[in-house]
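Page 42, continued from yesterday. The earlier attempt failed because a stray header line got pasted into the input along with the sequence. Redoing it now with the clean sequence only.
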Amino acid sequence: MSTISAITSPEAWEKHLNSLPSTTLLIVSFHTPWAAPCAQMSTILSTLASEYPVTDPPTTSWVKINAEELSDISETYDVTAVPFLVLIRDKQVLETVSGSSAIKVRNAIETHASRSGGGEQTANSDAAAATSEKDGETAPVDPVKQKEELFKRLGNLVKAAPVMLFMKGTPSEPKCGFSRQMVGILRENAVKYGFFNILADDEVRQGLKEFADWPTYPQLWMDGELVGGLDIVKEEMAANGEFFKPYSVKADGDAAAAS
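This time it went through. Structure tokens are written below.
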């Protein structure tokens, strides 16, 4: 599976850009470490990257760039806000996506990844199109296949970090009281965790309810297994005072808070 590499200097960027075949789709994520939406986008892109196998020559290449540290590169691609995605092939910008909409990002990547270097859609991607026309009618997408693909994506997403919180809003701006309480519990226990704002992706929001067989949010997952919602987490903590210890950034005897 593909992974995301960090570009840390202008020289490394030029070297990487020049090393790619003209047919490779380059997915560039501009981010800053302090912006909460960037953390969610990192989770989204890591999950998407894992769906693309490593090939020779590479079909896709995934990199991330700190927009503030490498401001010259940011200016080259008109990055004025983060997260910001740039899709490039043969050193030409194909599309940009500003913001943290998982649907827009996924659609953009899938659209351009399915096209050859000459800009023509391949036979395989034609066959995999969401709809096809026959005798003037539009054939619906196969719901079974669509569900299988969604569940595969969700299976990767719940494993994106050892502790994953699916919540309404972001840790800095929770959109419901239960999500706010869950974030508070994780912070109090210095837990390092990934998060996903289910309000930004309705496909995940609805699909995860069925995938997890759990109808409400927030949902806390640990090592790819569902723990449950706020009440269950509180019960687990009451029964086991060291419930979060394996996932805490605190060393034994160290009272430092999670960053």
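Notes: Residues 62 and 217 are 31 Å apart (CA to CA).
Reminder to self: strip header lines before submitting.
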